[in-house]
Amino acid sequence: MPRGPEAAPSKVALVELEPGHxxxxxxxxxxxxxxxxxxxxxxxxxxxxxxxxxxGISQGSSAAVALLLEWHDQxxxxxxxxxxxxxxxxxxxxxxxxNVDDLLDIELPGTTERTTRAAGAASSAxxx
Length: 128
Fold this sequence. Notes:
The chain is α/β, with parallel strands linked by helices. The protein is built from five helices and four strands, in the order ββααβαβαα. It has helices spanning 30-36, 40-44, 62-77, 89-97, 117-127, and strands at residues 12-18, 21-27, 50-59, 82-85. The protein has a four-stranded mixed beta sheet. β3 (50-59), α3 (62-77) and β4 (82-85) form a beta-alpha-beta unit. The longest helix has 16 residues, at 62-77. It starts with 11 loop residues before the first strand and ends with a helix.
């Protein structure tokens, strides 16, 4: 006898917009991260710099940040650089609280400004 409704499969995709430019779309929760875990090799192929737009993520998590760190390492190991754009406030907070914001190239929405732990802490203090 079922104990509750079955979880719907995560809807998540890594879409290549053009060479070197990609977009993540959907729920980047634990299930979505599991579906995308092996996709980093697509980003790292060719050893070129890669821009990844995170603006299509409807749900993020600490697992999402861990996946982005893994992809960052894969692209770097292939000789390229991974630039992450379109960070949500929630993902920035997770990266900052996890002390990995300095490891990722976090570009603040609508700017070319980069975030650091100090900037994130100051921003949080202003909102309080």
